[in-house]
Amino acid sequence: MSDTPSILFICLGNICRSPMAEGAMRALIEASGRKILVDSAGTGSWHTGEPPDRRAQVTARNHGIDISDQRARQVTPEDFRSFTHIVAMDRNNLSELRRIRPTNATAGLSLMLDHTTAQAGLDVADPYYGGAKGFEATWGDVAEGSAGLLAKL
Ligand code: 4NP
Hints:
Elements: E1 6-11, H1 17-32, E2 37-42, H2 54-62, H3 79-82, E3 85-88, H4 91-100, E4 108-111, H5 132-152
Parallel strand pairs: 1-2, 1-3, 3-4
Helix pairs in contact: 1-2, 1-5, 2-5
The protein binds 4-nitrophenyl phosphate (4NP).
The site of 4-nitrophenyl phosphate has 10 residues, from loops.
């Protein structure tokens, strides 16, 4: 197995929270000069092939990060072996990952905000049905979780 850490961020649709987490973490990794792979996926398949939600793209761009090239995909059984870390945005998605986890899985499963001290045990709230303020809150959460996770790797 490779020593290079690899992180897969998971939300429901893979168009809002986990693409923002992927973008935030990729920027932190680039700034750190480390070699760590990052990707994101959804437990659901409704948005497969779509770019991130416009509001997620705008929010990331406001923080200097372009996530427009990302395309949504659904998590696969292979992901549980090919990634070292699979990080769920909320407890519902973490439960779903535990349910579909193959018996030969090697990836460690965790909750995004468990990588913070201030918000351990909490969900990154789903901003899909809200407004721009919700997306800004999401950005704060995924940036904080990504920084905490990177510090442990
Ligand atoms: P995400 O947000 O899980 O953060 O990508 C959602 C996007 C779409 C839906 C739900 C959540 N949806 O029901 O279509």
